[in-house]
Amino acid sequence: MPCGGSGRLISNLGGSPKDIACPWCAGTGTRQAGIDAQAAWRERAEAENAAAEPGRAEGEDPAAEPDPEEAAAGAPSEPSGAPGEAPAA
Questions:
Q1: Within a domain: residue 71?
Q2: Do 46 and 62 touch, CB atoms closer than 8 A?
Q3: Does residue 29 fall inside a structural domain?
Q4: What is the value of pTM for the model shown?
Q5: Is residue 30 part of a domain?
Q6: What is the maximum alpha-carbon separation in the chain?
């Protein structure tokens, strides 16, 4: 456990050192079963990212790729034939 049983640790998150309660033991000095020590930071980062992108819907993945079928539906079709060849009349 990062706190060594003291229940406190030094966090450099944000650039400057801070004394905080250990996220793995919640400050008790005894590891808590089933705790996700990274959840609070992950949720805070997601909320900050959502606030910074007002046009993005909540829960939408900004890195998600567009559906190729949807993209193809609006794209103009290419003429048949070999490249550089005029379309058949």
A1: no
A2: no
A3: yes
A4: 0.43
A5: yes
A6: 83
How far is residue 18's CA from residue 10's CA, in Å, rounded to a whole number? 5
pLDDT in tens, the chain (89 residues): 678 889 999 988 788 999 989 888 888 999 888 888 888 778 888 888 888 876 655 555 555 555 555 555 555 555 555 555 565 55
Count of domains forming the chain:
1
How many Cα atoms within 13 Å fall on the side-chain side of residue 60?
11
In a domain, 7, yes or no: yes
Query: What range defines the domain where residue 37 resides?
Result: 1-53
Q: DSSP readout, 31-85?
A: PPTT--TTHHHHHHHHHHHHHH-TTSPTT--TTPPPPHHHHHHTSPPPPSSSTTP
Contact 10, 18 (CB under 8 A): yes
